[in-house]
TrEMBL record:
PANTHER family the UniProt entry points to: OXIDOREDUCTASES, TRANS-1,2-DIHYDROBENZENE-1,2-DIOL DEHYDROGENASE
Sequence ranges assigned to domain Gfo/Idh/MocA-like oxidoreductase N-terminal in this UniProt record: 9-125
Protein species of origin: Paenibacillus turicensis
Keywords associated with the record: Oxidoreductase
Protein's UniProt name: Dehydrogenase
Span of domain GFO/IDH/MocA-like oxidoreductase: 137-252
Protein family membership: Belongs to the Gfo/Idh/MocA family.
Family annotation (InterPro entries): Gfo/Idh/MocA-like_OxRdtase_N (IPR000683), Gfo/Idh/MocA_domain (IPR050984), GFO_IDH_MocA-like_dom (IPR055170), NAD(P)-bd_dom_sf (IPR036291)
Pfam families assigned: GFO_IDH_MocA, GFO_IDH_MocA_C3
Highest taxon in the source lineage: Bacteria
Length: 331
């Protein structure tokens, strides 16, 4: 790809599930990219997806998708345990990668992918889409400006009540099910965005359900110097899903932080200031636009969510699972 003259990146969509559907539909709101191909394990599934999303090409295998010479970047929306295989496939083909969270199910797998991406000298990023929402960008600006002083505490939670389905993705250990990888990574990543991804101490507990995966958990991430984050995740428990950031001069509240349409800044006794950013898209368009910008600029990583940070976040999740004695069958 000649980034000096190219104005758009061509996306290939790997996977045809719910998350791939939402991401692909959001590409209509992106100025610097468009989906030109989709790949699935069956041609029937890929063709149906392509017709629904008005995507020109449909492939009945992931190998055919990554071999398409016109595809610049692959969005990977397959289940967690398959990420290492599918990212490797894309990287070996020289394609840039945006991979859904969690990047991999453990740090060992991600270390391999990072090494491969750097060896191939191609762009790779974890799809932590919430960091690119305008309301979350505004929150980072407020913190960097010192609006709430020195940040001391973060509280974030994301959880929902799913129906009992032992074979479904959320509760099946063979598919990397459980709250931590599916929901919990969001509050953990949110805390990392504020404090960094290197807590000095982690204390956590989880409810391990009948299928052997964590149905909900809570964790205290201690960063030292009086700084800490309390994070909670659940797939069988409906939570409030808000985030709070407390500093020495005030606090920030983000209702339903995962989807963040607004954020409120409260500085001491001053009148609260609310930043509102309603949108037409689901919200994935912002990360897609940034990925396109970085690829066209010849960059290999995103400073907003670097590969090293993604690796450190996965290491946090690994430590938490270690405290619970939770290991997936395929590990």
């Amino acid at each position: 790809m000649n980034s000096a003259i190219k104005k758009k990146v061509n996306w290939g969509i790997m996977g045809t599930g719910w998350i791939a559907d939402r991401f692909a539909s959001d590409l209509q709101y992106v100025d610097n990219g468009e989906a030109i191909a989709v790949g699935s394990r069956t041609l029937e599934s890929a063709t149906k997806f392509a017709e629904n999303m008005n995507i020109p090409k449909a492939y009945g295998s992931y190998e055919e998708l990554v071999a398409d010479p016109n595809v610049d970047v692959i969005y990977i929306g397959t289940p967690h345990p398959f990420h290492i295989e599918h990212v490797t496939l894309a990287l070996q083909a020289g394609k840039a990668v945006l991979c859904e969270k969690p990047f991999t199910v453990n740090a060992n797998d991600l270390e391999k992918l990072i090494a491969l991406a750097r060896q191939k000298n191609v762009f790779m990023m974890e799809a932590m889409w919430t960091r690119f929402l305008p309301a979350i960008v505004k929150v980072r600006e407020w913190i960097q400006q010192g609006q709430i002083g020195e940040v001391k505490q973060v509280r974030a939670e994301f959880g929902f009540h799913s129906e009992w389905n032992p074979q479904g993705r959320l509760l099946n250990p063979e598919l990397g099910g459980g709250a931590l990888l599916d929901a919990g990574i969001y509050p953990v990543s949110f805390a990392a965005m504020i404090f960094g991804a290197n807590p000095i101490h982690i204390s956590s507990s989880a409810e391990i359900g009948q299928t052997g995966v964590d149905e909900h958990f809570s964790a205290l991430l201690d960063y030292g110097a009086g700084k800490a984050a309390l994070v909670t995740g659940a797939v069988r428990l409906a939570l409030n899903n808000d985030a709070y950031i407390y500093g020495t001069k005030g606090h920030i509240h983000i209702p339903t932080f995962l989807y963040a349409n607004e954020a409120t800044l409260q500085v001491n006794d001053a009148k609260a200031e609310t930043f509102s950013a309603p949108r037409a898209s689901h919200g994935y368009a912002y990360e897609a636009e940034e990925v396109g910008r970085l690829i066209l600029a010849g960059e290999k990583e995103c400073p907003i969510i670097s590969l090293n940070e993604s690796l450190n976040i996965i290491r946090i999740l690994d430590k938490m699972r270690g405290q619970w004695g939770l290991k997936y069958p395929f590990e």
